[in-house]
C-alpha cells in the first residue's frame, strides 16, 4: 500500500528480498519527483540496509512501513517494524569479528544523522536517517555564439558633369577604386570634351 502527499510518502510492505528492490525504486522515483536527484543513491542504499535488517532480525513478522518525509530542507527516511528490540551499532573497524550491525554502520556513513526509538503509540520501533535536501538545479544554458560578418557599405558613385551634348551620359566611377583613378577618368573626359569643342567650327 502506498500513500503520499506533496512532501510525505508512506509504503507498507513485507520486508522480503523481492520487495526491497521495489521499495528502492519507489524511493528513487519519489526523490526525482521532489527534484532531489543528488540524494537518490544514498537514500536508496540507506533504505535497503534498514529493510535488510528488518528481514534478518525482526520478530514476529516482517511487516514494516517505510516513510519518506521532506520538511524544512531535510529528507528523513524512516522504517517502522513490530520488533521492540533496538538495533545496535557494532564495532566495524578492520580486524573486528563482529558481523552484525554493519548495515547500521553503512547507514551512518551515507547519512548526516540517524537514530532508533520505540514507537510511542504501539509495539515496535522506528529506525531513521536524514539527509540535507538540496534540490537539483538545471544546468545554465550554454552561451550562444553568433558570428557577425562586417557589413560593407555600397560603393559611392562619382558623377562627372560635362557640357551638354559633349557626352551621352554621366560616367559613374566607384569610390572604392580610389581618388586617383577617378581623377584620371575625369581628366580623360575633360580632354576629350576639349578636343571635341576645338574641332567644332566657330
Keywords:
six-stranded antiparallel beta sheet; alpha+beta; about 200 residues; two-stranded antiparallel ribbon; about 25% strand; 8 strands
Descriptive account of the structure:
- It is a single chain.
- The protein is an alpha+beta fold and 202 residues long.
- Helix 1 runs antiparallel to helix 2 and helix 2 runs antiparallel to helix 3.
- It is elongated and about 100 Å long.
Radius of gyration, whole Å: 44 Å
Count helical runs. Answer: 4
Give a quick account of the main beta sheet: strands, pairing sense, barrel closure.
6 strands, antiparallel
Mean pLDDT: 76
Unreliable runs: 96-100, 173-183
Content of β-strand: 15-25%
Helix content range: 25-40%
Total beta-strand segments: 8
In terms of quaternary structure, what is this? single chain
- Shape verdict: elongated
Strand adjacency order, main sheet? 1-2-3-4-6-5
Structural class by sheet pairing and helices: alpha+beta
Distance between the termini: 120 Å
Would you list the SSEs in sequence order as H and E? EEHHEEHEEEEH
Overview in brief:
The chain has 202 residues and is α+β, with helices and mostly antiparallel strands. The protein is built from four helices and eight strands.
Amino acid at each position: 500500500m502506498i500513500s503520499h502527499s506533496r512532501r510525505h510518502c508512506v509504503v507498507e510492505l513485507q520486508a522480503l528480498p523481492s520487495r526491497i528492490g521495489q521499495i528502492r525504486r519507489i524511493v528513487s522515483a519519489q526523490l526525482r519527483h521532489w527534484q532531489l536527484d543528488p540524494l537518490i543513491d544514498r537514500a536508496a542504499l540507506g533504505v535497503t540496509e534498514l529493510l535488510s535488517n528488518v528481514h534478518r532480525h525482526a520478530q514476529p513478522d516482517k511487516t514494516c512501513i517505510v516513510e519518506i518525509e521532506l520538511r524544512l530542507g531535510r529528507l528523513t527516511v524512516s522504517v517502522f517494524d513490530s520488533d521492540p528490540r533496538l538495533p545496535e551499532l557494532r564495532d566495524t573497524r578492520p580486524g573486528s569479528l563482529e558481523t552484525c550491525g554493519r548495515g547500521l554502520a553503512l547507514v551512518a556513513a551515507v547519512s548526516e544523522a540517524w537514530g532508533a526509538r520505540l514507537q510511542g503509540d504501539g509495539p515496535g520501533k522506528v529506525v531513521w536517517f536524514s539527509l540535507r535536501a538540496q534540490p537539483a538545479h538545471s544546468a545554465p544554458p550554454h552561451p550562444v555564439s553568433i558570428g557577425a560578418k562586417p557589413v560593407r557599405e555600397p560603393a559611392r558613385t562619382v558623377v562627372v558633369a560635362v557640357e551638354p551634348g559633349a557626352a551621352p551620359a554621366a560616367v559613374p566611377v566607384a569610390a572604392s577604386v580610389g581618388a586617383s583613378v577617378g581623377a584620371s577618368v575625369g581628366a580623360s573626359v575633360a580632354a576629350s570634351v576639349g578636343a571635341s569643342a576645338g574641332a567644332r567650327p566657330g
